[in-house]
């Protein structure tokens, strides 16, 4: 099978995560499951909508996938001429390859038209473009979850978690022959379950909610998170965003009720557990803090920022050996994060080991070349060369 890979990381929010619950899109749900979901929906705590202004600018599904007349013409011209010798599904893949060469990665979930106009966007935007083109020429497309380690990034006090999906473009009339469109393929990954259209749309609206929340547009974020629930009514991560928005708006009671509800049906969701724990700490509730911390301790924590925070705390307490171990732990989960290398280099400088510090930074630069943080890390690397390295006075 001829498979051309591009790559996509769909962005989401901490503590939200953009993992989707795989579901067979063609098989009808058993009646018992439907009844259970309806019963759970009745137990969902009411939202305090009065905290947020009415927002009418939510992108519709049609708007999400719409292309301008010029964009359609450009694609169809190449589809019927330049790539006419290829099977129709491969034509889409080749067209995407041609237009995304030099595509400017930007952490923004644009609509299909916006992404093509700007030649920019994140991988979710590219996935949306792929579906728009497939719809235009009636090629069957399905998204597949990829089981590899999520990617983490931090903005202010919010950690962004990125999961991985890729697209399959099928030959007409066939279900066993497809081209894989993979935006940023990982070196080690395993095929996961297919993601149906409802899940994909919920993921888009959840992504936009996270982005808007980070931009301080709380009312718009609330509207997008609620739209995600229209497609996945019990989505833990969309509910997590809504709880975060309530907490930021000052309604800790509703936030806690939502956290507690989610944990009754998804008690291993680290995103919700961490947010609930932060709320309990703010309210100085030792019994709840101990309970939530115990739940967290029972689960594997792949979030590198947990270990980075422990490293920073150890450094503040002048426990440099522990700080180095914590940074090393973070690097084992997320070797693409420049923070883990800068943190270690700083410590080795203070220990009077500048050569080790330089070696660590070289390792970080090698990883940065394979990551979206390349430019920011490289700028820091060059600035490191300028100052005179001095040992920490004893």
Automatic annotation (TrEMBL):
Keyword line: Signal
InterPro entries per UniProt: TPR-like_helical_dom_sf, TPR_rpt
Domain of life: Bacteria
Keyword field contains Manganese: no
Electron transport as UniProt keyword: no
Signal sequence bounds: 1-22
Protein name (database record): Uncharacterized protein
Organism this protein belongs to: Pseudidiomarina halophila
